[in-house]
Each structure stands twice: as C-alpha cells, then as structure tokens.
Amino acid sequence: MMFKKILIANRGEIALRVIRTCREMGIKTVAVYSTADKDSLHVKFADEAVCIGKPASIDSYLNIPHIMAAAEITNADAVHPGYGFLAENAKFSQICADHGIKFIGPTPEMINKMGDKITAKETMIKAGVPVVPGGKGLLESIDHAKISAKEVGYPVILKATAGGGGKGMRVVWNESEIEKAYTDAKIEAAASVKNDGIYMEKFVEEPRHIEIQIAGDQYGNVCHLSERDCSIQRRHQKLVEESPSPFMTKELRQKMGDAAIKAASAINYESVGTIEFLVDKHRNFYFMEMNTRIQVEHCVTEEVVSFDLIKEQIKIAMGERISGRNYEPQMHAIECRINAEDPYNDFRPSPGKITVLHTPGGHGVRVDSHVYAGYVIPPYYDSMIGKLITVAQTREEAIDTMYRALSEYVIEGVKTTIPFHLQLMQNEDFRKGNFTTKFLESFKMK
Ligand code: MV4
To answer: Whose CA is nearest to atom 10 of ligand 1?
Structure first.
C-alpha cells in the first residue's frame, strides 16, 4: 500500500522534517496548526493546512477529535505523530486504526506494553534483556518499601510505573529517608501522570545514558542502527546527543544491539523506536525504557549510518520490508539543541520574536529548524529553535566543526543556548568523552 497523503499531527521542526521526506517520496502532506502557529513554516510548506484550535496544546495538538476531523476532510491515508504530543498515546493510535487511517508508529498494544514501566520491565526479563535489579511489581505500603529496600540494598530509586523522563522519581540513600521519599513519589506520580503506582530499583550511580535505535517491520524483522549517547542532560532535558558514544566498544555495541533487538522482538515491534539503557562504569548495561516514537535526536543516527529514518518509518508503515541487517557508525555526529532559553539564568525560557537570524552552513553542518527572521517563538510549546548537527570522520573533528558552526550562528531577539554549547565544546572533560548523566550538575557557565 502506498500512502498518497499524510497528515502531520505536530508542529515546529519535526513537522517540517516529515514534510521534507514526504516531498521526496511524492506523498502529499496536510499540516495542522493552532492559531498561535498560523505563520509557521510547516503551514506554508505543506500541500494543505487545517487550523485545529486555540494555542493551548490541549485545544489543538492534543485534541484528538479536531485532528481526526482534519484527517477526514482532507482524505489523508495516514497520520505521522512526530514526537511529544500524541506520539505515544495508545488511544490515538487506536482511533486512527478505527477510522482506517494508518498511524505511522506502533499499535496501541505495543505502546501500552512499553508505557507501563513495570509491564515493560517484566516483558524484558522474560525476553532475557538485562534490567536494573529491584523489587517485584508495585510497592504496596511504606513497610513493603522498607523490606524491599533491605533486600535490594541502598541506595535505591523509586519510580512511577506510568512515569518516564524522571517524573515521580526519588533516590533513597538509607532507611531514615524512605518514608518521606515514598510519600512524595506517590503524590508527584498521582499529580503528574495520574497514576500513583510506584516501584523500586537499585540506584545506579553516575550512569551513562546510551540508547539504541532500532527498526522493526510488519513481518517480524528487527535491526539496530547503533547507539546515541544522551548523557549530557539537565533536569531530564537532553541538550547534546552524539553517535557513536565515546564510551562504546565494538563488543559492547554488539551486546547492547543484541539486547535491543531482543527487546523490540519481544513485543513484535513495528516502526522505528529506541531502547534506552543505563550503562555503569564497568560497562554493565540495563534496560531503562523504550521510546515508541521517532526522537528529537534521530538525526545523529541518520548522519552516521546514512539513513533517512523518517523515510524508513513511513515505508515500514506502508508494509515494506526492512533489510534485516544492523548498521555500524561510519562517521561521528553531534547534535546541539538550540533552545530559546537563557543559559546564564537557569535556562529560563525566552520566547519572543527572532529579529536577526544567520544560520551556519558549510562542510559537515546540518541545521533542522523551523524558524526564520521575524518568526515569533510562542510561549505555549517547547522552546526549541532548532537542532545543529555536525558530522565528521572523528569525534574531535565533529566537535571542532560544531564550535565553528556555533560561532557562525546569529540569533537576536531571544536568549539562546548557543553560549552554553560554545563553552561545552571547549570543556576538557567533554572533549575527552569523560562524562556521565551527572556532568551538567557541576558545569558552570563562565
Ligand atoms: C535511574 C538512575 C539510576 N538508577 N535508575 C532518569 C529518567 C528516567 N528515564 C530514569 N532515570 C534514571 N533512572 C536507576 N535504577 C538514574 C536516572 C537518571 C538519569 C538517567 C538518564 C539520563 C539522565 C539521568 C539523570 C538523573 C537520573
């Protein structure tokens, strides 16, 4: 089956990214937009555009009836959800299927299995994928938590089963802290993910966050496309991603790649997806979560394996087969997230009008961005201005190219994360590949 028309249920750079690939594939596109996005490039570049509501996400990009109505009136065969918004919403995937519109992503069953973290962990244990040692199932009471923690051994971490991305998480160093941590985690989980179920794991100290990109087709073939190192994060917001990981070895990639394929195969995964692992200093690795969507940082993988992952994702949704072989990085790629945030002021959001814009270019430079001079970054959504990606034969050269490209980038009117990235690219530990997820806790802007 060939798609004739795809509706993109998203905005910003990812909407543009999907439109670009559709153009190359000869597929027509439908943009949807909120009234705050009427002057956005995704609206101008799509073949058709439908306004779906007011600025607040809940009234537009999260409003399923409005999006389905737009798909029906434009006669779209498929919906691409991008990332964020409805990308991992099982109900949306189901509703698309019920209306005969292909959701370009996994089935509701696959999303549900990975969305509940305890279910995901149990599935991984059965599949033989290493998981962080911990308690079994939900914590039923404070006493249960105390007994479990004694068995697991302090320090432990409490996590929300419906969580992800750090919501409802608490690290507990000894028994005196557990009562408060248990209560706080439950309250936070109930408030942020509407489900107060929490579970326990051994706390892995100073881990690296390394994830494996996978792709699976409708016929049970699964392959991996190597790793991304996403350890450079701040309050669970990724700022820099790269591939290959400076911590990776050929042997570890083989093992983590095998584990990622096992993980995806265990749920008969269809589409592109990512298996996130924690990796400790001894190179032990543990399954953390699976992301059942295309991710912001997919571009670094595209650059090192010479693959258009959006094209692959669309082809899989159309029922094409994947080759079935795995892919090793042939280059080194780094991505810096350029956000409208003030790195000198606790990364406070800085929405507003971009008055002056000069975008870098030249050898080894890719910019994925939806902004232009005169564009107003609305305050309602994320603060991403774009992604700056560099690619070179070696990590050192990719960093040098990044520094040069960041120096060329001119964005006036809003504060940006460019000064942060410039300082990071000159940091000795970063340049040596000597970092964990704790790196930014001690990083100070000059
Ligand atoms: C952990 C951990 C240490 N031990 N689990 C953070 C987000 C969520 N996906 C899980 N996270 C963590 N889980 C155990 N058993 C440390 C983190 C963590 C982290 C993980 C990846 C990247 C950045 C992080 C920052 C703080 C904590």
So the answer is: 166
Structure token digits, residue 432: 């040596």
Q: pLDDT over 70 for what percent of the chain?
A: 100
Q: Span 9-38, mean pLDDT?
A: 98
Residue nearest to atom 9 of ligand 1 (CA): 165
Residue 382's nearest CA partner among 239, 213, 256, 196 is 239
Distance CA 138, CA 158 (A): 10
Q: How does pLDDT run across 245-284, given as a tens digit for each residue?
A: 999 999 999 999 999 999 999 999 999 999 999 999 999 9
Burial 21-50 (b: 16+ CB within 10 A, else e): bbeebebbbbbbbbebbeebbbbebbebbb
CA distance 446 to 444: 6
Enter the tokens of residue 253. 């990639």
**Cα–Cα distance for residue pair 340/418, rounded to 1 Å:** 9
Nearest CA to ligand 1 atom 20: 209
**Cβ 337 vs Cβ 240: under 8 Å:** yes
The one-letter code for the residue type at 354 is: I
The answer to whether residues 386 and 370 touch, using CB atoms and an 8 Å cutoff, is yes
SS3 at position 74: helix
Phi, psi of 62 (to 5 degrees): -110, 0
Domains in the chain, CATH or no CATH each = 5-104 (3.40.50.20), 133-202 (3.30.1490.20), 208-441 (3.30.470.20)
148-159 in b/e form (b: 16+ CB < 10 A) is bbeebeeebbbb
Ligand 1 centroid to Cα of residue 166, in Å, is: 7
**175 C-beta neighbours (distance < 10 Å), count:** 12
Average pLDDT over residues 39-56: 98
| CB of residue 204 inside a 6 A radius of ligand 1 | yes
Q: How many CB atoms lie within 10 A of CB 378?
A: 17
- Banded pLDDT at 86 (limits 50, 70, 90): very high
| 293 flagged as catalytic | yes
pLDDT in tens, 307-357: 999 999 999 999 999 998 999 999 999 999 999 999 999 999 999 999 999
Contact between residue 418 and residue 402 where contact means Cβ atoms under 8 Å apart:
no
Average pLDDT over residues 116-132: 96
Q: Is 241 in the pocket of ligand 1 (CB under 6 A)?
A: no
Q: What is d(CA 336, CA 238) in angstroms, rounded to the nearest whole number?
A: 9
Note the pLDDT tens digit of each residue in 348-405: 999 999 999 999 999 999 999 999 999 999 999 999 999 999 999 999 999 999 999 9
